[in-house]
Amino acid sequence: MLDILNKFVASKFEPREELRSPFLLGDYIYATDSCIAIRIPKFDGADFQVCDEKFPKLESLFSDNYRDEFVPLPALPKQIICGTCNGSGTEMDEEDGELMECFSCYGNGHQLEIIDVGITKFKNYYLQKIAGLPGLRFAPHPTDVAAPAYFFFDGGEGLLMPVRF
């Protein structure tokens, strides 16, 4: 399960260091980059940073979220490599020559593509990330386009923020 958790942590360029690796909160182990969050039940021997005071609302997001109607993900188009960073997710800062997160793709190496699921819009990049999770079931909110979509998979559950314009 650690390999799944690590797919959903923030990049090394995220200023909030606690988002760069999975962490413990209550009875769960979480991984998030602030656009998507997943959690699995805590297990014996789990040795992760405890972040009870850093994310006081995270647990309630899971318990309060809509999850009544699951829908299949649509056929997802192949992701297009970012033309700015050529898929690396990084670019050189012109001022100091340091590597930084690509501003065009936000570090994921792919062009921004928006996919409709029901009435809600999501980034293809994130839908692609969850599409391969075992036993995935996806529940976007049927009336609130700003609400995160709930999903669960074998061994865990998650929330995906929609695209807001």
Task: Pick out its properties.
165 residues, alpha+beta, 2 domains, seven-stranded mixed sheet, two-stranded antiparallel sheet, 3 helices
Summarize the structure in short.
The protein has 165 residues and is of the alpha+beta class.
Structure description:
It is a single chain. The protein is α+β, with helices and mostly antiparallel strands. It has 2 domains: 2-75 and 119-160, no CATH class; 82-112, no CATH class. It contains 3 helices and 11 strands. The protein has helices at 2-6, 58-64, 124-131; strands at 23-25, 28-32, 36-41, 49-50, 90-92, 99-101, 114-117, 120-123, 137-139, 149-153, 156-160. The strands form 3 sheets. The protein has a 7-stranded mixed sheet, with helices on one face. Strands 5-6 form a two-stranded antiparallel sheet. Strands 7-8 form a two-stranded antiparallel ribbon. A hairpin with a 2-residue loop joins strand 1 (23-25) and strand 2. The mean pLDDT is 89.
The geometry reads as globular
Number of strands: 11
Report the major sheet. 7 strands, mixed
| Global Rg | 16 Å
For the largest beta sheet, what order do the strands appear in spatially? 4-1-2-3-11-10-9
Write the layout of secondary structure elements.
Layout: H1 2-6, E1 23-25, E2 28-32, E3 36-41, E4 49-50, H2 58-64, E5 90-92, E6 99-101, E7 114-117, E8 120-123, H3 124-131, E9 137-139, E10 149-153, E11 156-160
Parallel strand pairs: 1-4
Antiparallel strand pairs: 1-2, 2-3, 3-11, 5-6, 7-8, 9-10, 10-11
